[in-house]
Amino acid sequence: MENTLYLECPCTSFPRSFARDYKETYLYPPPSTIYGFLLSLVGEEDLTAHLGVKLAIGIIGNSPPISRIVRKQRHHKFSKTHMGTYPPSKFSKPNFQELLTDLKIVIKLNSSEESAKIKLDERVGIALSSPEQISRFGGLSLGESWSLINGIRPYRLDDGKIQWLVKNNRGLIGLPIWIDRTTTRGTFQRFTLSNSDEFNENSWTEIKAPVPAKTSKSRSRSKK
């Protein structure tokens, strides 16, 4: 299958956007996470470098099991009072977190609508065939930095049947497409998990930044 990648992640977590103390995880990899993963693979630090790329995400096998652990987590917001200094004894506490294990993912790329000079699918191809030509740093992870993957390669038919995430406005699977790191707001899309192993064109999700809302000018009332 052309431009289709297969990767294995033994343990990861995709914290829900509105999770607070209890870190619930999405059951499936969000498009925003997969896009960030691909940028990391090719060594790209600019999140907007490949806007317009279309992704399709599928999983192999049954839905991954969820485990729950207790983990020490930091809780703070940047303030002028602390100026980036947060003693662990005051800003850390144990919390529950959900983990997914033995996740097998398939990613399909379509860069035909991209405006980048060298498109993302071309850069991914270079990263896999000639890794010495790219410059990147850190371990390759899916989700948080501790969620290292076993490997990534082109998909083979004997890897197993693919269940694609298909866009469906009434679907029960809601996943983020883009998260604004400044405002923590984002755009979301609902999906269903296809029972057919045939690729569905509605599986394509375009990665695009949301258009900033126009601020309406308030009419000043003249005092009589």
Question: Which structural class fits the helix and strand makeup?
Answer: mainly beta
CATH class: Alpha Beta
**Overall shape:** globular
What is the chain-wise order of helices and strands?
EHEEHEHEEEEE
What do the pLDDT scores average to? 86
CATH architecture: 2-Layer Sandwich
Q: What would the CATH topology be? A: Alpha-Beta Plaits
As a whole number of angstroms, the C-alpha radius of gyration is 20 Å
- State the share of residues found in helices, binned by percent: 10-25%
Count of all domains: 1
Number of strands: 9
Q: What count of helical segments does DSSP give?
A: 3
How much strand?
25-35%
Low-confidence parts: none
Main β-sheet description: 9 strands, antiparallel
Keywords: Antiviral defense
Protein name: CRISPR-associated protein Cas5
InterPro entries: CRISPR-assoc_prot_Cas5_N
GO biological process, one term: defense response to virus
